Amino acid sequence: MSQKFTSTIAGASIFISLLGLFSRGLGFVREMIFANNFGLETEFDLYLVGAVLPITINNILLFIGQNYFVPGFQRINSSDTQCAQKYYKQSFISFVGIGIFIAILLYFSSEFIINLYMHSASQTNKDTAVKIFKIFLLTIPFSAGVSIFSAFLQTIKEFKHPAISFLFLNISIIVLLLLFTDSFGILIIPIGYALGTLLQFTYLFIKSNKFVRLNLLEGAKENNSSMSLFSSTLFIIILIESISQLYSIFDRYFYGEISAGGIASLNYGLIVWFLPVSIFSISLATVVFPIISKTINDSSNEEIEKIYNESISMNIFIFIPLAFILFFYGDIIIKIFFERGKFDHESTAMTFGVLKFYSISLVFYSAYTVFNKIFYSINQVKLLLLITISGLLIKLVFNFILIDLQQDGLALSSSLSYIFFFFVSYLILNVKLNIRNRMLFIKDFTANSVNCFVSLVCVKVISDIININSILQLIFIVILFICFYLLNSILIQHSSMTIVRRVFENMNLVNKIKTI
After folding, report:
1. What is the pTM of this model?
2. DSSP labels for 269-314?
3. Confidence (pLDDT) at 108
4. H or E element: which one contains 507?
5. Which residues of 219-253 are buried (b: 16+ CB within 10 A; e: fewer)?
6. Which end of the chain has fewer CB atoms within 10 angstroms, the N or the C?
7. Which residue ranges make up each domain of the chain?
8. Would you tell me how many other CB atoms lie within 10 Å of the CB of residue 468?
C-alpha cells in the first residue's frame, strides 16, 4: 500500500481493518465452535472462570506494551535512533521477566484464586477450573514478549504483522477443537491457546528482528538512561490497564448468583458487541496513536484537531447504525453464528437480552478507545487513571444494584461505565487539546441517530409488507437498513462521507501513478 493512502487517519484505519478482518473472522468461527461443542453448559462456565485472570493479564500486558512503549520510543527515536533501539531491547527483557514472575506467583496461588470465585462449587468443578488456569499461565511470558513486538512494529508502521500474528492463535485453537475435543474436553481450549501464543511469539520475533536485531545478552548489559524517563508513569499505566481489564473478573464474582449459563451468555453477547469495535475502532486507535504522538511532538495544533475530529466523525458514522442493528436485530446475528449443537433457541434468547444492554454503549465505547490513546499521547496518564478508577467504581456499584436483573444487569452496569468513560474523556480532551468545534459529537450523533430512525421506519414498513418469517429474509432486512442509512448519508452529504471519499480518491490516485 502507498504511504499516501495509509498516511490519512481513515485510510490507514481501513487498511488495518481489512488486514484484521480475516483474523477477527477466524476468532468468530472459534466462538461458533465453542457454542456448538459446549453451548451454555457448566463446563464452558468453568473454562470462563479458569481463563479470566490469565487472559486479563495477557490483555493488560498487551495494552501496557503499547501505551508505555509507543510514546517513549517515538520521543527517543526523534533524537537518537541507537538509544531508541536500546530502549526497545530493554523493554522486551523487562516485560518478559515480569511475565515469568507473574506466572510463577499465580501458579502457586492457583487453588486459592479459583476458590474465591467458586467457593460453593463442587471439588470436581474446582479441579477442572484449576487445570485450565494453570495451562493459561504458560502463555503470560510469551504474551509479554508479543506486546513489545507488536508495539514496536506498529511504531514503525508495520501494522500488518501484529494483525497477521493473531491468525496463529485462532487457527491453533480451531484445529485442536475440531480434532481433539472428544479426547480432552474443555481442556483443549487452553491447550490450543498456549500453542497459538507460542506461534504468535515466534512469528513476531522473526518479523521484528528484520528491523532491529534482538540480542538479549547485549540488551541486558546496556544501561539506557532513557528508560528512567518513563518509569514514573509506567506504574500508573499498569494501574490503568489492570483496572480497565477487571470487568470480566467482577462479573465472574457473581457466578453463583445468576442462572446457569449466565456467565456464558455474557461472554457470547460481549463477543458479538466487541466484534465491530475490534475491526474498526481499535484499528482506528492503533493508527491514531503513533500519528498523534508524532503530531503532538511537532506541536501542530491544527493537525491535532483535524485528527481528533475525523476520529470522532468516523466512529459515529460507523457505530451508530451498528448499535441499532445489535439492539433491534441482534438475535439474527446470534442465530446465524451460534444457534447449533448445544446452543439452542433458549440460549439465543438469553444472549440477545445481554446484547441489547451492551449495544447502548457501543458508539461511546468505540470513541473512547481512541480517546484513551490520546490521553497517553498528551501525557495525561494521571487524569486517565482517575477516570478509569471512577468508571470501575460505577461498574462495581451497579453490579450490586442491578444483580436482580441477572446477567442483563451485569451487562447494563458495564454499559453505564463505558458511557461515563466517554463523556468525561470528551469534556477533558476538548479543553486539553483546545478544540474549537466542541459541538461536533452532538451534531454528528444527532444527525446519524435521526438517519438510523428514518432507515428503521422504512425497513419496518417494508418488512410488514413482505411478512418476514425466514432467516434469509431477516438478513435482507438488515442489509436494506444499511443501504437506507448509506443512501441518506450521501443525500445529506454528511462529513464522514467526505472523509471516506477523500480516502478512496487518494487510493485511486495511487493506482494511477503505479500504472504510469
Report:
1. 0.70
2. HHHHHHHHIIIIIHHHHHHHHHHHHHHHHTT-HHHHHHHHHHHHHH
3. 94
4. helix 495-515
5. beebebebbeebeebbeebbbbbbbbbbbbeebbe
6. C
7. 42-256
8. 15
